[in-house]
Design brief:
Layout: H1 2-22, H2 42-71, H3 77-109
Amino acid sequence: MMMRTKLCVALAAGVVICLPAFADCTLPPPPSKVPDGATASEQEMLTAMNTLKAYNEDVNTYLKCLDFEAKQNRISEAEREAKNNSAVSQLQSIADQFNKQVRVFKSKHG
């Protein structure tokens, strides 16, 4: 019984020590550039598309982190909403830029 109690205390302490590592939601950096559809190769456009997909996944992970932090009362609902809206706006802006360049690329390459 005593061994079980010590084990439970040790596990609980380990969990508490690890919590701060998960408490900091970090907005991922956006892709550094969107290729120019008028001059980019197909491979450059595909690479940019894959980079944008990965960025989208990273932003979704960030948003889930914000939701978790708000549920744990580590950030206010207003702060969560502001950070959420900013991240989504940034993602949408990058996606819009990329989609514009895809249209340019398609017009040049059929």
